[in-house]
Amino acid sequence: MPDFPLATALAAGPVVLDGGLATQLEAQGHDLSSELWSSRLLHDAPEAVVAAHAAFAAAGAQVATTASYQVSVEGLAAAGLDATEARRLVVRSVHLAERGAPDAWIAGSVGPYGAALADGSEYTGAYADEIGVDRLRQWHRPRMEWLAEAGADVLACETVPAAAEAEALLEEADMLGMPVWLSLTTVLDSDGVVRTRRGEPAGEVFAMARDLDAVVAVGVNCTDPDGVLAAVTAAGVAGRPVVVYPNSGERWDAAGRRWTGTAGLSPHNALTWVHAGARLVGGCCRVGPRSIGALAAALRPAPSGEPVGPHNGH
Fold first, then answer.
1. DSSP string computed for 124-167
2. Binding site residues for Zn(2+), as ranges?
3. Which domain holds residue 24?
4. What residues are designated binding site?
5. How many domains does the chain have?
6. In this structure, is residue 186 part of a structural domain?
7. Phi/psi class of residue 39: alpha, beta or left (left: φ > 0; alpha: ψ in -120 to 50)?
8. CATH number for the domain including 169?
9. Which of 25, 116, 155, 305 is an S-S bond match for 180, by CB 3.0 to 4.6 Å?
10. How far apart are CA 89 and CA 76, in angstroms?
């Protein structure tokens, strides 16, 4: 990994994230249809995870996000694995990322409670109010501690759908004293307001991070690219660098069980986000190494020090 903190790099200019790890693992021929998704491969095919990280690193990603998004004690217990094995797999996720991307910062993925339910509820946040902040803190704590102990450079608290869960994650990160970014999954409503999937104004959630030293960035992921620019503006209230890694822009046709639309993360859009204030930029679902490579090329500094792109004559 680099010999200086991610926060230092973000202060100097844009940093390129990786893309959808599950997307790349599927492209490598792996079936991720189980309730454990890509985390199953931490147990069954660790070398595949190394190869996926290496593909993104070769494309120009400067951050490798671990395959721990859906790892939980409860989820693994349902698959016949105990808490000791859960800890071992979380630690392994960090070491596999280090092997695949030795020159990258390692972001320990902390997915939402809803991801472990494998029922799509991370896109509604319906559970958050019922469970409450204290219980969510308890649920997230072991994985966050294991990722920190394993040597992750930063915790990626990502695809967070509700204010209560964001509060729980921020309080836990503050207690742990570990660098963290908070990334919401959001929608842009008809009035142009960026909202969590639970319906709260995203700006109010971002503001929770304003006075927490552990927070290195706030922003959005697993959202439509069309809503990212508004989200960058909304995230500015936190006074932190902004992280954005949207989906490819394709949409899932549930009836036809297929993706529709145009795949790929637009480098032109990414440049627009950077000029609006984004500093940590990558992709999520359906974004593979090719798209990250195009993004990295677009954000590579020109001789003037500005990212290459239409804003500086390239």
1. T-TTHHHH-HHHHHHHHHHHHHHHHHHT-SEEEEEEE-SHHHHH
2. 222, 284-285
3. 6-312
4. 222, 284-285
5. 1
6. yes
7. alpha
8. 3.20.20.330
9. 155
10. 10
